[in-house]
Design a protein that fits this description.
Elements (H helix, E strand, L loop, with lengths): L3 H10 L5 E3 L6 H9 L6 E2 L3 H15 L4 E4 L4 H15 L4 E5 L14 H13 L4 E3 L4 H18 L3 E5 L39 H11 L5 E4 L3 H10 L4 E3 L7 H11 L5 E6 H6 L2 H9 L4 E7 L2 E2 L5 E2 L7 H8 L3 E5 L2 H10 L7 E6 L15 H11 L4
Parallel strand pairs: 1-2, 1-3, 3-4, 4-6, 5-6, 7-8, 7-9, 9-10, 10-14, 13-14
Antiparallel strand pairs: 11-12
Length: 387
């Protein structure tokens, strides 16, 4: 058994200072220890996959891997991010995955039985090397050195698998807010006068984004036609095109925005992607980076897979963002309003969501990014002066 202080101090020594994830009773001492340490802290995520994406953004912004902690039952939620974000973009992270339902371990709830049996095999299948969580203070340094060596050689995640009782009990010294929330009133009105056929195209909206983009901005574009169109209309080193991890663009951009508050971070997102990971609206609202603008391009369709309808026609993403804590939210189908919002946003505006309705269709000569995801990561980090 180790103490939270011993493990966290060793992480700090090696520069690992950003901790995120989702709670598990096995992780309670470690999460409490991070929360007790003002220099570290713990950024709660809405699910395990978005914790991985949040950590990926932190890595792009700092060049330092993050520590992502979650229960093994949530490893399934992290599969998409680990395989379609970390793997192609070559983004390392230290995963601490608990081993509930471990064969031969303590009796546990029935929902942990199967995942307990396959946890390490699933890590093997995803080519995430793993070792048991350090069992003593003397084992911490060698374990971290193995992970750091893997990061340096492969720029990919490494996992510690944590059994029951691995970390000594640690009381939580910080307190959650207890004051009454009181009466709250929400008011949101959208202006959507245009029939679908008269709306602007997604490329019109992206041209407005490019016109408003500043040299020190960072743009993260969601997967599918959005990233491909942005690349075709105007490639740049400060743009990152997600080619997978659908719905994770906002979590990754949040990780960047939290670490680079002096730069505007702009997200070009899609209706299907936001619907897939709606919890990220709460995560952005809670962590509230003032420099982030979240542009949701909504054509009410999965355009890149045949224009099948999404569920967004009756959804107001702006109202949802307001309810989740965004400082500002707008719903419109006017390109003039969009251009005005993009130009006016500053690093002090508070997280802002612009829900912009478009029509379906894409560019006649639609290209694909000519650089690999890993090259795009390296290029952006060089642009930021990180690599």
């Amino acid at each position: 058994m180790v103490t939270a202080h011993e493990f966290l101090d060793a992480c700090r020594t090696h520069g690992l200072r950003f901790f995120t994830g989702t709670p598990c009773s096995y992780l309670k001492p470690l999460i409490n220890g991070a929360l007790n340490d003002a220099a570290l802290g713990f950024r709660d995520a809405v699910n395990e996959g978005d914790a991985v994406a949040l950590a990926a953004g932190a890595y792009i912004a700092t060049g330092v891997p993050s520590v992502v902690m979650f229960q093994n039952s949530g490893l399934g939620n992290a599969v998409n991010a680990l395989t379609s974000l970390n793997w192609p973009f070559k983004i390392p992270a230290l995963l601490i995955v608990t081993h509930r339902g471990e064969p031969g371990g303590p009796a546990d709830e029935p929902q942990h039985e199967l995942m307990g049996e396959i946890t390490t095999a699933l890590l093997d299948t995803m080519r995430v090397p793993w070792i048991p969580f350090p069992a003593s203070a003397a084992e911490i340094e060698p374990a971290l050195m193995r992970a750091l060596k893997h990061f340096a050689e492969h720029s990919l995640p490494f996992a510690f698998v944590m059994p029951h009782g691995a970390v000594a009990e640690t009381p939580l010294l910080t307190t959650r807010p207890t004051a009454a929330l009181g009466a709250r009133s929400f008011s949101f009105e959208e202006q959507l006068p245009l029939p679908t056929a008269q709306r602007a195209t997604r490329s019109d909206a992206l041209l407005a984004l490019l016109a408003a983009k500043r040299d020190d901005d960072i743009v993260v574009a969601t997967t599918g036609f959005t990233g491909r169109e942005l690349f075709t209309l105007g490639d740049a080193a400060n743009q990152l095109y997600m080619v997978g991890a659908m719905g994770g663009a906002s979590a990754l951009a949040l990780g960047i925005a939290l670490h680079l508050p002096q730069r505007r971070v702009l997200i070009a997102d899609g209706d299907g992607a936001v619907l897939m990971r709606m919890g990220n609206l709460a995560m952005v609202g809670a962590h509230a980076p003032k420099n982030l603008l979240h542009l949701v391009l909504d054509n009410e369709a999965h355009d890149s897979t045949g224009a099948q309808a999404t569920l967004s026609r009756g959804v107001s993403f702006g109202a949802m963002a307001q309810a989740c804590g965004y400082a500002r939210a707008i719903g419109s189908d006017s390109t003039a309003v969009l251009a005005e919002e993009l130009a006016a946003h500053s690093t002090e505006s508070g997280p802002t969501l612009v829900h912009f309705r478009t029509r379906t269709g894409t560019l006649a000569q639609l290209g694909r990014p000519k650089i690999s995801p890993a090259e795009a990561t390296s290029r952006l980090m060089r642009e930021l002066g990180i690599a």
